[in-house]
Design brief:
The protein is α/β, with parallel strands linked by helices and about 325 residues long. The chain is about 45% helix and about 15% strand. The chain folds into two domains: about 200 residues, 3-Layer(aba) Sandwich (Rossmann fold); about 100 residues, Helicase, Ruva Protein, domain 3, CATH 1.10.8.80. α3 packs across α11 and α12 runs antiparallel to α14. The longest helix has 17 residues.
């Protein structure tokens, strides 16, 4: 077993070399915000969608655009608005007068990177149209189903401040996002560097340094990363503690959680932990990998009760309590 782990570790160390090139290229444009950039890369490696939440001006859109520029892949930006229609997203059937037939006019969702900007500004029918694309990675136009390109990843942004004219994402769609990342303000040193770069006559841009083939190969390698039985049990304990806190000596949380995390949380915690290890050129998962990604995987999957909201508690508070309480392997 030790020899197998050592062999996997050496393989991952070699094959993950492109991560440094990609990080360096993105770093030419994006100053700081390492967690946000890393989480987008986690989504890319795990074939999972990412929801970024933060106030305007924190480079959410720029980070997504820069990463797409660094990967030799197609990119489309869709600005979500209240008057957007499903056809504006997935496409529609067009009647051809010459042939007398309907032909498919594919929408902007047929691309590798979809930036869904301010996703909560679109009505439910548009959000449901995106749902099939996210979950099934296919779109049905008329009576024909069209496969989406590989890789296909939805990177969505939403503004937590202004709620006027917005449509909260239903839990079923939020659960489709592998990660929900909260983006904070940069440090003073980072903002000084941002100001210096962005006021220059030629702001920096990223070049293509990674191919889609590199991404596909990395995805298959992520599944080879070793996860010990104890780590898997630790992941299950974290998820089950959100459902039955009394079983984990967290009885005071029982009336705070309405619904615990779904089985997708266990799957994504396992996958994201592997990808987190991959980004660190490691062929095995440690408890620190699990803790590092737990908040982003769980924060949108733990639904609070009115009692918790009345006490001004957040899902992050309860998740942190679980991580502090549970003994790591």
């Amino acid at each position: 077993m030790q020899e197998n782990i050592r062999a996997i570790n050496e393989k991952i160390e070699q094959e993950s070399a492109f991560v440094d090139r990609l990080t360096a290229e993105v770093g030419k444009v994006i100053v700081g915000q390492k967690t946000m950039v890393e989480r987008i890369m986690l989504g890319l490696l795990c074939n999972g969608h990412v929801l970024l939440e933060g106030v305007p001006g924190l480079a959410k859109t720029l980070a997504i655009r820069t990463l797409a520029d660094s990967v030799d892949a197609d990119f489309k930006r869709i600005q979500f608005t209240p008057d957007l229609l499903p056809a504006d997203l997935v496409g529609t059937m067009i009647y051809n007068q010459r042939s007398g037939e309907f032909t498919a006019k594919k929408g902007p969702v047929f691309t590798n990177f979809v930036l869904a900007d301010e996703i909560n500004r679109a009505p439910a029918k548009v959000q449901s149209a995106l749902l099939e694309s996210m979950q099934e990675r296919q779109v049905t136009l008329g009576d024909t189903t069209h496969d989406l390109p590989d890789p296909f990843i939805v990177l969505a942004t939403q503004n937590p401040i202004e709620q006027e004219g917005t449509y909260p994402l239903p839990e079923a769609q939020v659960d489709r996002f592998m990660l929900k990342v909260k983006v904070g303000y940069p440090t003073k040193d980072d903002e000084r560097e941002i100001m210096r770069r962005m006021v220059s006559p030629k702001p920096p841009t990223a070049s293509k340094v990674v191919s889609t083939e590199d991404i596909r190969r990395a995805r298959s390698l992520v599944h080879e990363i070793y996860v010990d039985k104890l780590i898997n049990e630790y992941i299950l304990d974290i998820v089950f503690a959100t459902r039955d806190p009394e079983d984990y000596k967290l009885a005071d949380m029982a009336d705070k959680i309405e619904y615990g995390a779904s089985p997708r949380a266990s799957i994504y915690l396992n996958l994201a932990s592997r990808a987190h290890a991959f980004l660190r050129h490691r062929g095995y998962v440690t408890p620190e990998d699990v803790k590092a990604v737990a908040m982003d995987v769980l924060r949108h999957r733990v639904i609070l009760t009115y009692e918790a909201e009345a006490e001004e508690l957040s899902s992050e508070d309860l998740i942190q309590q679980i991580l502090d309480q549970l003994a790591s392997p």
